[in-house]
Amino acid sequence: MTLYLRHYWKDERLSFTSSTNKSMTFDGRLVKKIWVPDVFFVHSKRSFIHDTTTVNIMLRVFPDGHVLYSLRVTVTAACNMDFSRFPLDTQSCSLELESYAYTDEDLMLYWKSGDESLSTDDRISLSQFLIQKFHTTSRLAFYSSTGWYNRLYINFTLRRHIFFFLLQTYFPATLMVMLSWVSFWIDRRAVPARVSLGITTVLTMSTIITGVNASMPRVSYIKAVDIYLWVSFVFVFLSVLEYAAVNYLSTAQDRRERKMRDEMREMARSQSLPCTCGMSQTRTMLLDGTYSEADTNSLAGYTSGTMGPEEDMDMPRDMMTEKQPPGEHTVVHLSASSESTTTKKKGIRALNIIQNTHTIDKYSRMLFPGSYILFNIIYWCSYCLGA
Known about the structure:
- This protein is α+β, with helices and mostly antiparallel strands and about 375 residues long.
- The protein has three domains: about 1-80, Distorted Sandwich (Acetylcholine Binding Protein, Chain: A); about 80-160, Acetylcholine Binding Protein, Chain: A; about 165-255 and about 370-385, Methane Monooxygenase Hydroxylase, Chain G, domain 1.
- About 35% of the residues lie in helices and about 25% in strands.
- The strands form three sheets. Strands 1, 2, 4, 5 and 6 form a five-stranded antiparallel β-sheet that branches.
- Helix 2 (about 190-215) packs antiparallel against helix 3 and helix 6 packs across helix 7 (about 355-385).
- About 10% of the residues are buried.
């Protein structure tokens, strides 16, 4: 920060007689020959007086002994910032001035006109912050070894510009989350496409998180940008896990269907059950609801011969449901289970979503975007309205 620091005091030893009552102005060479306040900047890391083309010091003495001492200084001072709301944060920083040698009994420091003592250039702008307001205060500072000192404060309220972080952090993270949802519309059998898309989005989110943390101070608490990025990372990671679940359930379902077809084929061979192979028209009846259409259609894989008239005549009369036209037969599946039909139907409905992998993708298409939109509403309302 570069500023013009002006001191006012009265030293009667410097008074002089003037018929025109005009002041006298001197450069920095006279400063070494008179008394000047020994003001320094507390918590300053680096500060210096400009010396181009000469030392930027001006001393003006009035006839009654009043003195104006002005110098151009650049100060780099420390500011304790709270990054818990970064980058939606507002910081309060202060520049502190104090006498180095004189206590409050020897020297009293105060602002000449209060807040009006501060004036800034309207063209001043910071790359990351907007100066909302500034004001002055003063109080005593105590040192156990030397005593009490007057200390002056210049307090600044800085609000961080958010647009840069929207472009560099929030928008890319949001796009990566939306890109991970594309896998829900890709066929579950396209394993390379869905896996590569999921891994790419996960690695991209990891790169964004690493880049943001590399440019930030290493603090031990969670920042607002960390919450957004890690929640976005969780959404991307869950989309990968969703396909892992879909692929596993699809494989398990195919394995169960193959096993069921093999068991029914063996049962048909051992019990000489009629087969639907070669029938011109086949109708299937479900007596208790425990067999799905996939189970009944699995009979199409049997290689047994067609049922002739003799086999048709040997069937019990109570199993014949109706008189069938020539060439049309009805296959009746009987259940030997003692459980009630209602209980089994409820169990089948409960497992329908898990067994039908298309349903998992269908619900994910609505659940993932809806949850992420809800998170964004809560996030931006909490931090923007809270500020």
